[in-house]
Amino acid sequence: MAFLKKLLRKAKNKPKRLNPEIYDLAAQGSRKALLIYINYCREANIKLDYELFQQGLFNSAEQGDAESLYDIGNFYLNGTLGFPQSNEQAMDYFLKAANLNHTNAMNQIAFSYLKGRGVEADDNKMLEWYERSAGLGNADAITNIGNIYAHGQGVEKDFEKAREYFLKAAEQGNANAMNNLAYLYQNGFGVTKDEAKALEWLQKAQQIKAQQPVSIGIMDG
Predict the structure, then answer these.
(1) Rounded distance, CA 138 to CA 131, Å?
(2) What InterPro entries does the record tag this protein with (predicted)?
């Protein structure tokens, strides 16, 4: 994209320690590489033209790129990279991304309905969006549905049903689901109390987290 090349030229200095491959990929239009570049420049106190960045991102979103729509939603949600903080604007872009089957956007919508973030709190809509995301295989959504049943959030509390969801997500390698299974076995909620199984699931979760140190917490969208 042309805007990326302009953006990179606008930088006061080219970071000397940035992997040249990342720099080249960013210049070629890789979103992932661009975000790595931006984060690096922020840490190095190198000024970027956020207006150009926003323009490019909006252009990408207008072309129907779900990831760009989701990115814009997150930037509005957090008020970062020159975007004003706005839960309402964030919700609008999450909805646009969700309509293109972006499951993480669906999770954000569900969490917004849970917390009343930019919308009126609604447990039914929360569950509806998590189920839609889970139906597309999103393990975090599956875990969150299990958490909903474990806590009785807008539904009748059902530990056995919660276990079914946690197990399904755990089979996809979701560490939070594994921790929740450990909790159920440790306390005998919906299962026969079993300290050995609890420890087994905790160890599996730790192994996953060691491989992927950044994980999404339960019910955080």
Answers:
(1) 9
(2) Mitotic_Regulator, Sel1-like, TPR-like_helical_dom_sf
CA 112 vs CA 105, 106, 172, 186: distances in Å: 10, 10, 25, 31
For residues 68 and 30, the answer to whether their CB atoms sit within 8 Å is no
Q: Evaluate whether 110 touches 116 at the Cβ level (below 8 Å).
A: no
d(CA 60, CA 7): 15
Task: Give dist(CA 203, CA 148) in Å, integer.
Answer: 24
Q: What is the pLDDT of residues 61-110, one digit of tens each?
A: 888 889 989 999 999 999 988 899 999 999 999 999 999 999 999 999 99
Planar angle of CA 112, 116, 119, nearest 5 degrees: 80
Cβ neighbours for 45, distance < 8 A, ≥ 6 positions apart: none
Which residue in 69, 56, 63, 58 sits closest to 30, CA to CA?
56
